[in-house]
Amino acid sequence: MVRAWPSGVCAYNSAVVHTGIGYDVHRLVEGRPLWLGGVEIAHEKGLEGHSDADVLMHAICDAVLGAIGHGDIGSLFPPSEPQWKDAPSRIFLEKAAKLVKEAAGSIVNVDATLIAEVPKILPHVPAMKVAVAQALAIPTDRVGIKATTNELLGFLGRGEGMAGMAVAGVNLPD
């Protein structure tokens, strides 16, 4: 961003937006609750994973971590560690937001897409936006969440799993 000073001299903002991309996929299994975007959704199957397996929050977490040049969710919260068994993914997003602050940065926005044939996601989007925004300590209008199907193609199209992808913008000092 360029600012014009009264003397006519221009000064550049010393923050630079960094972008990160995240992706996650989990298998659908019986006997587990379905957590998506921090919201428990009634469904006959849930996502298999060491934590709550929330593919949307996991993808967002990796996007935020990528924007600050950090490792991925698995390096911070290894599935080999028992303390993360069935842990809510909100914890992972809160840690990612804390790392952004420690880097003197601020999260500009996140945009995420869930890929699943069922259930319908649209009715849950407002609650998901609130859950993600709260975990990242940003306003809800800086969180985009959408859903699409895989048009019945592949393992996602057959309803064997779900995937999430996300992008995050983070302002970091120059």
Plain-language structure description:
26% of the residues lie in helices and 33% in strands. The protein is globular. Helix 1 (55-67) runs parallel beside helix 3 and helix 3 crosses helix 4. It has a five-stranded mixed beta sheet. A two-stranded antiparallel sheet has the order 1-2. It has a two-stranded antiparallel sheet with strand order 4-5. The chain has five helices and nine strands. Strand 7, helix 4 and strand 8 (143-148) form a beta-alpha-beta unit. With 174 residues, the chain is an alpha+beta fold. The chain has helices at 55-67, 73-76, 90-102, 125-136, 154-157; strands spanning 2-4, 10-12, 15-29, 34-36, 39-41, 46-47, 106-115, 143-148, 161-173. Residues 1-5 and 7-11 have low confidence and may be disordered.
Descriptive terms for the model:
two-stranded antiparallel ribbon; alpha+beta; 5-stranded mixed sheet; 9 strands; 33% strand; disordered N terminus; 26% helix; 174 residues
Which structural class best describes the helix and strand composition?
A: alpha+beta
Q: Could you say which overall geometry the principal axes of the C-alpha atoms support?
A: globular
Outline the biggest β-sheet.
5 strands, mixed
Beta content comes to 25-35%
State mean pLDDT (0 to 100 scale): 92
Helix content: 25-40%
Produce the secondary structure layout.
Layout: E1 2-4, E2 10-12, E3 15-29, E4 34-36, E5 39-41, E6 46-47, H1 55-67, H2 73-76, H3 90-102, E7 106-115, H4 125-136, E8 143-148, H5 154-157, E9 161-173
Helix pairs in contact: 1-3, 3-4
